[in-house]
Amino acid sequence: MTSVSRSAVVTGAASGIGRAIAERLAADGWGVACLDRDKNGLSSLTDALTANGQQAVAVVGDVTEPEAHREALDAAAGLARVDAWIGVAGLADGELLTDLDEGHVRRLVDINQLGMLWGTAEALRRWRAEDRTGVVVLVSSVHARHAASNTAVYEMTKAALEALVRSVGVTYGPYGIRAVAVAPGGVLTPALERSFATAADPVAARRRLESQTPANRLALPEEIAAAVAFVASDEAQYISGTVLTIDGGMSAVLLASACDPKAVRRPGAGK
Length: 271
Fold this sequence. Notes:
single chain; alpha/beta; Rossmann fold; 8 helices; 7 strands; globular; NAD(P)-bd_dom_sf; SDR_DHRS6-like; oxidoreductase
């Protein structure tokens, strides 16, 4: 098995974006401690990585519990020096503000917001105790700064992550600790595919989301992983307290290009 000189914790690693990040970091020579509640998904991931000669360990736990983050950091330290804590675990869900279920809302906040807070705090505590540097990378969303119908609670939790990144960057920057948020648009994950299946016309549901981006397609999890690998690398040492948006141009759109040629206005015609 290949030896490594640095390691990272990746939460939500059993599937989707988290899995792609763990795979990319392992391929780049990191040891990865993979934290998730999905035992089978974690085993599938870490078995595949170790079979490939890479360093990976599964940590079954709930991100809403601070102890799970301490255990994951210990597991990462058993592989190599911990240089990164990467928070991915989250729920994407929505409901009317006039029809909220308290239990559901608290679960969403516990996972999306507090789960990131506990892990970030544990990583910072460890780095400061050891007088070492490190980077926190949190997966946010374009929803942190742009609204869609009936997703207020989800958007609130994602906006909180970007506030957390700014605070960490300002407070711990003097110690060489960085924090960066990565904000994807639509990403073709298993969870998103399941959400399409709830529509009367799943193909139309997917096409509607694809058409919101000038790129006219959804991102692949591997494309988000590539961005995370960059901001966690030594090449990004001066990037902190900020957000990297990866959305195919979605959040830049004021008015989408007309699909009907008859609806296209001639440039300069209004002068």
